[in-house]
Amino acid sequence: MEQHSTGIPEMKIANLFEDIDVLKRVQRLSNQIITEDPKLEQEKNARLNNLIKTRFTGKIEI
Question: Is residue 18 part of a domain?
């Protein structure tokens, strides 16, 4: 990832043809997490919850 002057790394856009297996796996895992813990309140999801709040608060409705 390339850093910009804002300190936020530039995210690579996925190539649907090359990355389809990874994208499908991430989709399955994210759906599983949301089904089991929709508010990310479980201890095992605390880090993910914190990351989402840190990165996206004020940018999207969470």
Answer: yes
User: pTM, whole model, 2 decimals?
Assistant: 0.63
Range list of H helices, the chain: 16-36, 46-56
Is the per-residue pLDDT at 25 higher than 50? Answer: yes
Could you tell me if residue 32 is inside a domain? yes
Q: Which of 30, 23, 21 is nearest to 48 (CA)?
A: 30
- Residues 36 and 40: their CA atoms lie apart, in Å, by 9
Q: Using CA atoms, how far apart are residues 60 and 23, in angstroms rounded to an integer?
A: 22
Contact 62, 56 (CB under 8 A): yes
Structural domain total, the chain: 1
